[in-house]
Amino acid sequence: MIKMLRRRLVDLAVVLFGVSILTFAFIRLIPGDAVAIMLGANAEVTPERIEAVRERLGLHLPFYQQYFVWLRDVFTGDFGVSIWTGRPVIEEIAGHVWPTLQLTVLALALAVVLAIPLGILMAQLRGRRAEAFVQAASVIGLTVPPFWLGILMILCLSMVAPHLQLLGYVPFSKDPLGNIARLLLPAIAVSLPILANLARLLRSTLLEAMQQDYIRTARAKGVSRRGLLYRHALRNALIPFVTSVGIMAGYLLGGAIVIEQVFAIPGLGRLILGAIAERNYPLLQATILLVTLSFVLVNLIVDLLYAVIDPRAAK
Predict the structure, then answer these.
(1) How far apart are CA 237 and CA 195, in angstroms?
(2) pLDDT score recorded for residue 18
(3) Which residue segments constitute the domains of the chain, with CATH numbers given?
């Protein structure tokens, strides 16, 4: 286990280093000058003033020097300050991360909790008439874009209940029920493709596990079909399921950022889009790096859970 953890941490460091280089480079390929956009178009903006601001922000340095200065500061916990507000970018991110985190956790919980019974049901319906209907429903769930589903839900519910508040965000500390009510629809929209994917995966792994020799042996010993399914097959079928949950958590972060725009949720999605429009390099770099860090940490946790479920994976 320790050896596997050490190897995974090295992989994590390599991934973060590569992402930091790509992020730093690609952000600067976005057309437009951050300083010119910040100062705006007016008579007081002169080339000398633009150059002075560039020097103050360190943007006059060559690309590689800017990167190593930023990387050195990151290792000391300093992610820089926002070009527009002058506040530390960590404070900017902290003010927007909670809605995105809530939405992601709620969507993932919905997907996992519903995918397990749905996957078991799909496996039990194999060869029956209802199987075609369930399979078609899962394909629809995979192909429906979350943002389109979110818009459709808003339109339908606004016609049924026009006075129902569907957009925006209410902090949990102020109104717990209102907070959950505002996040439920976007969570359903963004979790539907994940739910369909996980349910189909669990069905496939369950059917494969039911064909294994140990299942035949247990069946020959008189174990009931229910016992075979829940006591023996499900444990092994959950191994690839758990791995996929970790991968899907990363995709949920990306999906949550998109769906936040539909439901006017002030999360990381709004922060990232605003930083792109403003060419706010420090804020954008820090946000993408921290989102990547959360993605790889989730996958690290999943790898550890994988090793707990199947100790052979830790070797």
Answers:
(1) 16
(2) 85
(3) 2-75 (no CATH), 93-314 (1.10.3720.10)
CB atoms within 10 A of CB 151: 15
CB–CB of 302/242 below 8 Å? Answer: yes
Q: Measure the CA–CA gap between 304 and 314, rounded to whole angstroms.
A: 8
Q: CA–CA distance from 212 to each of 80, 144, 307 (Å)?
A: 55, 35, 21
Report pTM.
0.77
Phi, psi of 173 (to 5 degrees): -65, -25
CA 79 vs CA 21, 87, 101, 287: distances in Å: 15, 11, 20, 10
pLDDT in tens, 169-224: 888 888 888 888 888 889 888 888 888 888 888 888 888 877 777 777 777 777 77
CA 232/CA 238 separation, integer angstroms: 11
Tens of pLDDT along 72-103? 888 888 888 887 777 888 888 888 888 888 88
